[in-house]
Amino acid sequence: MSEFMDIITADNLTYKQKVLKLAQAAENSEHPIPTTPAFDRFFSRDAICDMHEGNAPYRARYICVDFQKFARQGSDFLRLDAPENLDDLLFNLEVLYENIPSVTGRPVYCGQLDKIIDPFLGDLSDEEILPRLKRFLNFIDRTVASGYCHANIGPEETRAGRLLLEADAEVQNAVPNFTIKYDPAITSDDFARLCLKTAMRCANPAFANHRLLKDTYPVPEAGYPDGYTIVSCYNVLPVRGGAYCLDRVKLSRLADMAGSVDEFMDKLLPEATAALLEYMNARVTFLVEKSSFFQSSFLVREGLIERERFCGMFGVIGMHECIEKLLGPGHTYGTDDEANDLADAIMGKVTAQVLDFPAVYSEIGGDHYLMHAQAGFGDQLESTPGVRIRVGDEPEVFYDHLRHSARMHRFFTAGVSDIFPVEPTAAGNLDALLDVIKGAFAIDDKYLSFYPSDSDLVRITGFLVKRSEMEKFAAGKAVLADTSHDGEGNWRANALGDRKVRL
Amino acid sequence: MACRAPVNRIIPFSLVDGPGARCSVFLQGCNIACTYCHNPETQRLCVGCGVCVESCPAGALSRADGSVIWDRTACVACDTCIEVCEHRASPRIAWQTPEEIFGIVRGYAPFIRGITVSGGECMLYPGFLRELFSLCKAVGLGTLIDSNGTIDFAAHEDLLAVSDGIMLDVKAWDPDVFSKLTGGDVAPVKRNLAFLAERGRIEELRVVVIDGWTDPEDTLAGMAGLLGERTGAQRLRLTKFRRFGVRGPLADAPSPTDERMAALVRLAERLGFADIVLS
Question: Which domain holds residue B216?
């Protein structure tokens, strides 16, 4: 059977999932982006990877719509007036979500929801607002149905933020992910504790280090408090913009090609990095100049996104296995100084090369692509996400793990994260979790997430899935959220159930 | 000679030894012997009998000059030594100075807000505690004492001056019940309760509930009677007995029911306690 017929006849995919897969298969039957012999060589060895983004990109990978602007102006194209009350606003947002593309075919970002919703709460009581928010969150969960979709709150405490947390804990959904932009100088301890209490119930929100991230990109217009937002797993991207693409060097596979550390550092790493950078330029050029996306989208026309606020992301993955292969047993990444120093040198080298390369159409990145610690998606063996320490090799003392994270986080502009399961009893001492987050952020960790070790909602690479849904899919049944597909494979391949319970 | 104390273990991150993230330091040696003790191997100091040396599967123990020497790097933490010990001791301790412990604890900043020293009974080493706490205070780390209350705090004003507070166990109220459970005398516990409450130095009162061995109803009533109008100002932690680590007659004893614990909370509220934690 052809690939198309396999999709058409599959009994474990929903109709929508089949349509998405058929579209991707059709896209992949075209080959408009030229590749170089160097790219082909590394690609054939799985040392560089295009993330299955599709051969002929006709939409940006991640789109971060300026929903606050949308809430002010409505949409001519969608024939939506500017909302006058909460019901108008939530309806308008739902309509817009249906019209935002991405690599998954659905939005990976649904807004800085507290800031968007708070001005519309007016005189409504909590009892009037909560059912509306729950219905709204359920709409996103059941229609977007992708764990890569992400909402933001914070750093300020707002009534909308509190009510969103309360609603999210009650609906127990995997979609959207929530992140709080957290800054202890701005966010009250009470609100941070409420976030942690909620995380102990539904694994949301994760914590982003707002102090470090707030100046990552210029604001889209005067009056905005910052110019970044957290989307998809934990990508830090310009609001009113996004990411054209995400391609990656698989350090673990690249190390397979190396006869020595020197060959890896001096030859393979620069060659693979260069090959991927050239490919990204070709890919972005096609998207911007040929695909007509930025010329035809109403999102651009109505100022909800701007081409000039997009950039490409350069990803790395599999540092742990890379170091293991280069140094051999006895030098465990995460706990061995020589291993950690080599990782630091690798990241320093890649980053310098990326930041030296003239990237096309990447004004927001200073004409350079953005570094991202890519975490994988499906069942990829032998590639621990980004620069994380492999499950099973975590340092004995949690604080050493956090220090290691901070050391590696400093290389990444467009997203890097760690995930820690915690004892359910931590719900009884939220201050303890908060102390650890404050400590980690003080030493420049950029992003942390927690979930209770007995939770049905678990984080895979960054995205959330329900264990119960993964089990259904593993048993051959169709499930609504296709991130359960990625999650199921990744959970098994990376032994995520064995993550060290940290607190 | 430098002031040293026998350190059983240091837990870098504890959720249950006071407010926030804390490092817990467990000192070896206790002046009572509770039947429900979770860490009976912390009760006594090693007598050097050497039984554990023969049993150690990793060859991490040896004898020299009548003492048992522990090789930390060879140890596989299998706990065989503490299981075969007939003296409720452990060979896996290190006599360390306050400066040495502080050096370790300080490495856990900025993730912790303080330390809690427990045991055994840490008040057996008040000079060590005072020096350790002074070092911690100087860098802004909090300092809590977890004590069984059998050693008079009134005699240690200098230690109290560098302590944020005391987590005080009140294991029983009736002298006979206390003595049967611990082998000790409850009178100093009551003196300490009155003294520390009057000074506002109680971080938490701890009452463990185990059917048939403690009399928590009597303990709550006794404490409230002694505390009078200060009752409401004290945080009370009611802890379910759990058999993990326990040896002897209570090794397989059941935990009290949720209903019993809920009834105790209601009783404590009637007696005037306002800040009650169940664990």
Answer: 5-41+94-278
